[in-house]
Amino acid sequence: MIAILKREFIAYFTTPLGYVFIGVYLIFSGAFFYLFTLTSATPSVGSADVSVMFSMMFFVLMVTVPILTMRLFSEEKKNKTDQLTLTAPVSLFGLVTAKFTAAFSIFLISTAVMPIFGLVLNHFSDVRWAIIWGNIAGLVLLGAVYTSAGLFVSALTENQMVAAIISILLNVAFLLSNVLAAYIGIGFISDMLTDFSLLARYSEFTIGIFDFSNILFFLSITVVFLFLTVRMLERKRWS
User: Fold this and answer.
1) Residues 6+ apart with CB under 8 A from 59
2) Cα separation of 33 and 35, whole Å?
3) What is the 3-state secondary structure (H, E, C) of the chain?
4) How far apart are CA 205 and CA 121, in angstroms?
5) pLDDT per position in the chain (239 positions), as tens?
6) Cα separation, 111 vs 177, whole angstroms
């Protein structure tokens, strides 16, 4: 498992993919920080609002994380090396976990800039660190969901671009559940769609609500996608 993790992690830096993801992440997060947070951080305001910056990152991750995960299994299928991987002396759970951890580590490296933004902001305004750390926690949980979903989709196809597009569409479907909830007048259906909305639950983090049910929801969705990936690989191993 460790060998696969190292191989996948290093692969992000032997190709432009890892650098491109980190660069795009930093460009957008930096731009949002300056436009929506730093410009309003004045002593007269008292405390700058970071909710808009983190809310905008929701939409950035919808598109960028699938690019990070698109090659994890599809590349091996295209190169016809997937059977070698599936028959390696490691459990399918260990294989899936290793690939997930490698991609998620790149995401965490990019997210490490967020506390730095807080330190910069502290020079211009009072910083409520509890809110900032809560937002970062929400961002990390969201990244885990998108990474696991992208990993699952990558196991379905040998075309990397198809994997990226399907992953983005899946992320959009998570978003549309929140939109549909706003337009459907039937109470229990609207409530059910809201309960399964990533945006609705993530938005609570951005406004400073640290609800453990939301943490459990994100972790559960992540585990479900990892489980589905393992099941998918089991079918391929014995087919």
Assistant:
1) none
2) 6
3) CHHHHHHHHHHHHHCHHHHHHHHHHHHHHHHHHHHHHHHHCCCCCCECCCHHHHHHHHHHHHHHHHHHHCCCCHHHHHCCCHHHHHCCCCCHHHHHHHHHHHHHHHHHHHHCHHHHHHHHHCCCCECCHHHHHHHHHHHHHHHHHHHHHHHHHHCCCCCHHHHHHHHHHHHHHHHHHHHHHHHCCCHHHHHHHHHCCHHHHHHHHHCCCCCHHHHHHHHHHHHHHHHHHHHHHHHHHCC
4) 19
5) 788 889 999 999 998 999 999 999 999 999 999 888 877 655 444 456 788 899 999 999 999 999 999 988 888 777 777 666 666 677 889 889 999 999 999 999 999 999 999 888 888 777 788 888 989 999 999 999 999 999 999 999 889 999 999 999 999 888 877 677 667 666 666 667 667 778 888 888 888 788 899 999 999 999 999 999 999 888 876 65
6) 26
Q: What share of the chain is helix, strand, coil (3-state, %, to 5)?
A: 80, 0, 20
Check residue 208 and give its pLDDT. 79
Kindly give, in sequence order, each residue whose CB lies less than 8 Å from that of residue 192, ignoring residues fewer than 6 positions away: none
Kindly state the tokens that stand for 58: 């929701």
Would you state the structure tokens that stand for residue 114, as one six-digit string? 């967020």
